[in-house]
Amino acid sequence: MTRAVLSIGSNLGDRLGHLRAAVTGLGDAVLVVSGVYETPPLGDAEQPAYLNAAVMVADPAAAPGDWLARAHAAERSAGRVRDPARRFGPRTLDVDVVAVWDDTGRPVLSDDPELTLPHPRAHQRAFVLRPWIDIDPHGRLAGHGWLTDLLNAEPVAGDALELNPRPDLALESDS
Ligand SMILES: Nc1ncnc2c1ncn2[C@@H]1O[C@H](COP(=O)(O)OP(=O)(O)OP(=O)(O)O)[C@@H](O)[C@H]1O
Ligand SMILES: Nc1nc2c(c(=O)[nH]1)N=C(CO)CN2
């Protein structure tokens, strides 16, 4: 069994529809989904606000690279177009593999640029940490510590204040 946490985000088109389609596409692998947060864009201010959420997935047959393949497949299904000139530009759907655990429950570590684990910027991103804490309040990020400590630490705290919970925009794994 490999387990993973995926971060999903959208700031173009039908934002909620893109997130829902990503969750639906993950099928039976979905264990639990977080609430949805509306968040100001980080890294490139000239773009619309994002909807962000986190999904816990598990599949006995999945290798770590399979989660990245599923993430990319979901992005393609949402019609994501990559603009090489805008590293952190707007997108219909972004699915990041935040963390993976092996079948003994140990975190998988990787410095492969194709799949770096844990995700190298996850510990700095309130829009990743806050939804993940929703679904795993006692979670740890390998190499960084408790999620709750990270969320309360500078410089993440400033971003955390700008997270706007959207309970009106529920994600349903079986919708
Ligand atoms: N943990 C990971 N999750 C997703 N992609 C990763 C990961 N580690 C490395 N990558 C690589 O990063 C490349 C760029 O991914 P992507 O376009 O989603 O980045 P981004 O969303 O613009 O930025 P960020 O990674 O900071 O969220 C992908 O082609 C992928 O191979
Ligand atoms: N609020 C927010 N900002 C971002 C996001 C995101 O998911 N949410 N993703 C980015 C590219 O990875 C760049 N900036």
TrEMBL record:
Keywords in alphabetical order: ATP-binding, Folate biosynthesis, Kinase, Nucleotide-binding, Transferase
Protein known as: 2-amino-4-hydroxy-6-hydroxymethyldihydropteridine diphosphokinase
Pathway(s) where this gene product acts: Cofactor biosynthesis; tetrahydrofolate biosynthesis; 2-amino-4-hydroxy-6-hydroxymethyl-7,8-dihydropteridine diphosphate from 7,8-dihydroneopterin triphosphate: step 4/4
Enzyme class: transferase
PROSITE patterns named in the record: HPPK
Any one Gene Ontology molecular-function term assigned to this protein's record: kinase activity
SUPFAM superfamilies: 6-hydroxymethyl-7,8-dihydropterin pyrophosphokinase, HPPK
PANTHER family hit by this protein: 2-AMINO-4-HYDROXY-6-HYDROXYMETHYLDIHYDROPTERIDINE PYROPHOSPHOKINASE
One Gene Ontology biological process: tetrahydrofolate biosynthetic process
Catalyzed reactions: 6-hydroxymethyl-7,8-dihydropterin + ATP = (7,8-dihydropterin-6-yl)methyl diphosphate + AMP + H(+)
Stretch forming the signal peptide: none
Annotated 7,8-dihydro-6-hydroxymethylpterin-pyrophosphokinase domain residues: 87-98
Documented EC number(s): 2.7.6.3
Classification via InterPro entries: Hppk, Hppk_sf
Transferase in keyword set: yes
